[in-house]
Structures are given as C-alpha cells and as structure tokens.
C-alpha cells in the first residue's frame, strides 16, 4: 500500500493532487485548515485532518495521530499555501510571519517530523514534492512575503535533496504559473483592490501573456507532482519543475 500525505488538500492544487494520487491507487492522507470545498468521493481520502499548519503544536499532534494508524509514508506533497498582497511598506510583521509559517516553516518541519515514517520498512526510494511558484524566479510588486517564502521553498528543496539522498528520499519542487485556484482569485481581488473585480477579464488578460494561450488548472500541476513522485524517475532530485504554459520562457510580455 502506497501512502501519500498531501497538505492544502481542501481545494485548488492540493485537492487536485489528492484526486490524482487516489486515482493512481495511493492511500491519501489529506491535511488542510478547512474541510474540502467540494465533497470528495469516498475513495479519495484514507484520512482527512483539519490542521492549522502555522501552529507547530498542531503539526506535532497530526504526526502523532497518523503514526498510530499507518506504518509508513511514501510521498509527502507540501502544497498548503497562502499569499497576502500588500505594498512592501504596508506589510506587517504578523503578515510576514503568517505567510512564512504556512509556506516555508510548515513544509520544513512537517517533512522533518514525517521522516521516521518515510524511512520505515523496505523501499527503493520515497519522495517529497514541494509546491513552489514562478514567483521564486520572477515576480510582480506587492508580493514580497509570498515571493520570499517560495524562493525559500525552492532553495530548501535543493538542500533537502542533498541531505536525504542517503536515506533514499528524493526531494523536488513544482513551480506553478497562473493556475485557476481560489488563491489566484483572491489575489486578483487584492491586486485590484476590489471584491467585485471582473474575474473573466483578469483570466483573459493573463492568458494573453501565456504562450500556451490559457491559465493552468489543478490537474496540470497534479500531473507534474505525480511525475516527480514516480519511482521510475529515481534519478530526478533537487529539481524545480516549472509548469507555467511557457510564461517564464518569454523575454517580455509587452
């Protein structure tokens, strides 16, 4: 039985990862601060845990709970994330700390605390996949804390790939571009300072700047995560795979 722990599993990319891993016969343990936005089919989650990943005590409690019900973990997908869109001068210490806690600190310590389960039993290789962002490479104004967190995740991915290779754990990241998720919609509203922003216009405008001609969806990223987690790709570690429809390949969008 293959077991995957997936954070951010309530919606967006995390929910798509949960569905795709379940379709590949993984037993999925979902983690999120919320209950699933859409009621999942009964065969998606082996277990589902409501956890505030910004709080270390809740991470500890979660790991303690699952350690009593499972005997190993094959894949960890660190997908939970958030952004606070504000000018740099207006970003508070609380804003910064919260984004870093969820986007960077939680993947760091959740992976660390799951290592005993990931190194248990006989296995050829196991895998951690972190969800970074194109914002780790190129960004826009008002995203300082988010960009810092995702740059940190990409750097952490490389470091962990080196350290965990000795225990046959590969560590990679996916850098999504514009993906139609609840977080992207909230980002539009914050950038344009309006809850009533025309989302269709925003999506169409973004698509004009993407060589693939469209924004991505959760399944696009889930497929990339599955690729990196696949045991057949055992020589791939320390990589950040950009999945953005060609956006970063362009010299300019003007």
Automatic annotation (TrEMBL):
The record's annotation in InterPro entries points to:
NAD(P)-bd_dom_sf, Sc_DH/Rdtase_CS, SDR_fam
Q: Which PROSITE patterns does this one have?
A: ADH_SHORT, PROKAR_LIPOPROTEIN
Q: Pfam families from the entry?
A: adh_short_C2
Q: Which GO terms describe its molecular function?
A: oxidoreductase activity
Keywords attached to this Swiss-Prot or TrEMBL record, sorted alphabetically, are: Oxidoreductase
Hey, which family's this protein in? Belongs to the short-chain dehydrogenases/reductases (SDR) family.
What is the protein name given in its UniProt record? SDR family oxidoreductase
């Amino acid at each position: 039985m293959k077991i995957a722990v997936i954070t951010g599993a309530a919606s967006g990319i995390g929910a798509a990862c949960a569905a795709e891993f379940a379709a590949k016969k993984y037993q999925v343990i979902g983690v999120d601060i919320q209950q699933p936005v859409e009621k999942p089919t009964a065969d998606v989650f082996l277990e589902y845990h409501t956890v505030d990943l910004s709080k270390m005590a809740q991470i500890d409690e979660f790991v303690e709970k699952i350690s009593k019900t499972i005997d190993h973990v094959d894949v960890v997908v660190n997908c939970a994330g958030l952004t606070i869109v504000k000018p740099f001068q207006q970003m508070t210490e609380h804003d910064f700390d919260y984004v870093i806690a969820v986007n960077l600190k939680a993947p760091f310590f959740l992976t660390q605390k799951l290592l005993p389960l990931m190194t248990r039993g006989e296995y050829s290789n196991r895998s951690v996949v972190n969800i970074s962002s194109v914002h780790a490479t190129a960004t826009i104004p008002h995203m300082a804390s988010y960009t810092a967190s995702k740059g940190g995740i990409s750097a952490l991915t490389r470091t962990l790939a080196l350290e965990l290779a000795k225990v046959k754990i590969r560590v990679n990241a996916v850098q999504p571009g514009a993906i139609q998720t609840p977080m992207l919609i909230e980002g539009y509203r914050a950038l344009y300072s309006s809850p009533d922003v025309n989302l269709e216009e925003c999506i169409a405008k973004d698509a004009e700047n993407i060589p693939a001609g469209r924004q991505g969806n959760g399944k696009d990223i889930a497929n990339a995560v599955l690729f990196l987690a696949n045991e057949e790709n055992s020589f791939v570690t320390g990589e950040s795979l950009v999945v953005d429809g060609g956006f970063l390949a362009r010299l300019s969008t003007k």
